[in-house]
Amino acid sequence: MTTKVYLDLEWKDYRLSWDPADYEGIDLLRITAASVWLPDVVLLNNNDGNFGVALDINVVVASDGSVRWQPPGNYRSSCSIQVTYFPFDWQNCTMVFRSYSYDSSEVSLHTGAGPDGQDRQEVYIHEGTFIENSQWEIIHKPSRLIPPPGDPRGSGEGQHEEVTFYLIIRRKPLFYLVNVIAPCILITLLAIFVFYLPPDAVILSVVVLNLHHRSPHTHQMPFWVRQIFIHKLPLYLGLKRPKSERDQKPEPPPVALREPPGSGWGRGTDEYFIRKPPNDFLFPKPNRFQPELSALDLRRFIDGPSRAAGLPAELREVVSSISYIARQLQEQEDHDALKEDWQFVAMVVDRLFLWTFIICTSVGTLVIFLDATYHLPPPDPFP
After folding, report:
1. Dihedral (Cα; 278, 283, 287, 291), 10-degree rounding
2. Annotation: CATH topology of 2-172
3. Which of 24, 28, 79, 325 pairs with 13 at a CA distance of 20 to 30 A?
4. C-alpha distance across the termini of the chain, in Å
């Protein structure tokens, strides 16, 4: 900490007393500092090794032997900074003065007297010459005389008195609010909006992308994943799974066709292409979570209970081909449904991460700011 101060030192030297009547009423003399005895009061916790004052000005000597010396000083003292609550912190910086070569038995220190004659217990600031700092403001500026510890002999030899000046300063946070905290809050808000983008477009989380691009060929969805991320969590996260198009669109009404003469075979063909039959028009639609119909059961249906009661060979080939197409369609539908399940799980996990991020950042920010608001300088420096 760099401070520019004026030392105000007063002491009495009996060797410099005189009777003004003997010297034409001269009551005050101004003498160079090198011509008189000085108490060599220095700053102990200086940071640059410069113990002296900035300018050795003259001392003012009165006829009663009192001497006053007010040299300017430019001191650099060490100050321990605590940045736990930065930028809402305050610091207690001290300046310790004592006589360098005289102990308390030779030089007794006292705090200066104020205009009312009482001991001044704080640093006096000249309002006309004081310049406000743009980063710090002074909250308290007390001073205290620290006597030496008790000596059983009572002589005080080898022990020193100290005068400690305390500067309790508080940081002005406006600069950091505008240039540090506000940009961090804006960046956090932008990070929250990233969660609303689809997983296909943003590489935000390896977990979300891994779930989004899973398929039945690579992963099998566990039962607990389906129960938690499809049936339970979406209700609490405000997610609703959209219905598929086949569930939303009603089946079109059958188209009435007029059968021209001699076109019995053509009528069936037209109805097949105009009215698309459901996938389970030959076999009951199996549930994709149940075991599929085995090939032996299909063969029994095609061949019948016996060769004699079975279908003709041409019809069996037709039924076998249609059965193969139906199985392929059913497998593709199950594949798409499971893939949609994985994508929905990815959406649920992404929304879960969104709320987790919002809660953590909000609670953390509130805790930091509320904790900093209670970290204020004490109203009384010496309670």
Report:
1. -150
2. Acetylcholine Binding Protein; Chain: A, (2.70.170)
3. 24
4. 25
